[in-house]
Amino acid sequence: MATPQRKLHPLEGIVAIFALFFVLALTVGFAQAQDHRKVMLRSASALVLDAQTGEVVINKNSDAVVPIASITKLMTAMVILDRGLELEQRVVVSRADIDAIKGTRSRLRTGSSLTRDELLLLALMASENRAAAALGRTYPGGMEAFVAAMNKKAAQLGMSDSRFVEPTGLSPANVASARDLAKLVEAAHGYPLIREYSTRDKATVKAYGRRLKFHNTNGLVRSSRWEIGLSKTGYISEAGRGLVMRVRLASKDLIVVLLDSWGKKSRIGDANRIRKWLESSASIRHDS
Questions:
Q1: Which of 43, 112, 127, 171 is catalytic?
Q2: One of 73, 153, 183, 232 is an active-site residue; which one?
Q3: What is the Cα Rg of the chain in Å?
Q4: What would the pLDDT profile of 173-206 be if each residue is shown by its tens digit?
Q5: Entry pTM
Q6: Annotation says 70 is catalytic
Q7: Which helix (H) or strand (E) holds 124?
C-alpha cells in the first residue's frame, strides 16, 4: 500500500521558495562581488579614471589637498613647451639650481652645459631636480615669471585645488588633489615629447666632460606587462611616495593617480593591485 504524501503547509512552500531565491542570489552576488569589491590600497589618496568617458573607477580621498613632490615636473614641462623655447639652446647649470630646500644631491655639476631638451628629458624621466630648476631659472622673466605661468596653466586646466611655488616639487608648498592631478595627467598626455620622455627607460647625456647614464624613476616602464603612455613619480617626506600614469589596462585608457603611499615599493604594489583587479573584473564580465 502506497504511503500517502504529506502536503506542504502554505508557509513551508513560501519558505522553500525564498530559500531557493536566496541560494540563486548568493551565487550571482558572489560573481558580481568579484567585479565590485574594493581594492585595498596603501596610498592615502588614489583616483583611477576612464580617460575616454571620465568615469570614476576607483576613488579614495581624491579631494584631499596634499604636497605632490616631483609630479610637479609635468607642469614644469608643459610651461616650457607652451612657451615654444628653443630646445637645442644650451643652458649652464648654476649654483642657483642647487637644492636649498631639502639638500638633495645631483650628478649634474654646476658649470655643466646641456641643451634645454636634455634638461627636459632628465627632469621627466629621471626626476632630476637641478634640471627642472635650470629650466625654471632660464625661463623668460626668470623664476618668478615661471611660477606665475605654472599657476596660470593650472587655472586654465581647472585645477582649483592646486598651487605651485617652484618647478622641482622639492617644496611641500606645491600642492594639489588627486582629482586635480588627473586633469594634469590628461593635459600633459597631449604633448608628444612629455609622453616620450616620461616613459623612456634610460638615457645618456654628456655633462662636464663625462657621460652620465640616467634611468626612469618608475620601474614599471621596463615591464612588458604594462602599456604606459605617460608616467611621473614623486617623493619628499611631506608628500610620501606618489605616482601618476596614463595607461592601457583591461582594454581601457586609464588615468591612475596614487599619492602618499607608505613604503618604498607601496606605490608600485598599489599599481599592480589595481591592474590585477581591473583585469580580473574584465575577465568576469567577459565570461558572464
A1: 127
A2: 73
A3: 25
A4: 999 999 999 999 999 999 999 999 999 999 999 9
A5: 0.86
A6: yes
A7: helix 116-125
